[in-house]
Amino acid sequence: MKKWSACPSQYCLAVRRAGAGRGLFALEPIQKGASIIEYVGPTLAEEQWLNSRNRYLFKVTEKKTIDGWNKRNIARFINHSCRPNCVIKISKGRVFVVANRRIKPGEELAYHYGKEYFNLYIKPSGCRCLRCTPKKSAGRAARASDG
Ligand SMILES: [Zn+2]
User: Fold this and answer.
1) How far is the CA of 73 from the centre of ligand 1 (A)?
2) Which of 24, 42, 74, 98 is found 20 to 30 A from 112 (Cα to Cα)?
3) 35: burial class by Cβ within 10 Å (0-12, 13-18, 19+)?
4) Residues 26, 32, 37, 39: what is their CA dihedral angle, to the nearest 10 degrees?
């Protein structure tokens, strides 16, 4: 798994096995508000993404859609969460994953995929994010630290 480790910005991240397949994990503390990683890929023309069944398309604006299914785009491993620790920030047509709270080493990165995507791809099979399916062993501890 070590070959998947990457430091695209100032942060070290790693792809590891997660609740929903693979996920992207922080290997070091990340400050709230920090830009962690950019969602990168070729820009698709409208007729390309309209005909695509690719789930890694990221609609940046009405005119611009990024195809995230490429090796360089480690951000594609970030899973959906209903209570995420990251948010998406779009700046000048580029897509960044930004920490919306302090993230500890070993924590999985997640952001909310958006209502449209959620209803289309996640809801039908049931959401498997940490909030919707708390681990049995960690359930009590998580609830205790919630308040
Ligand atoms: Zn969920």
Assistant:
1) 23
2) 42
3) middle
4) 120
Cα 96 to chain centroid distance, Å, stands at: 10
Q: Tell me the CA–centroid distance for residue 64 and ligand 1, in Å.
A: 27
The rounded Å distance from CA 3 to ligand 1 centre is 29
Question: Both tokens of residue 93?
Answer: 């047509």
Nearest CA-CA partner of 87 in 77, 98, 101: 98
Span from the CA of 68 to the centroid of ligand 1 (angstroms): 22
- Summarize pLDDT for 14-25 with one digit per residue, the tens: 999 987 689 999
In angstroms, what is the span from residue 83 Cα to ligand 1's centroid?
A: 7
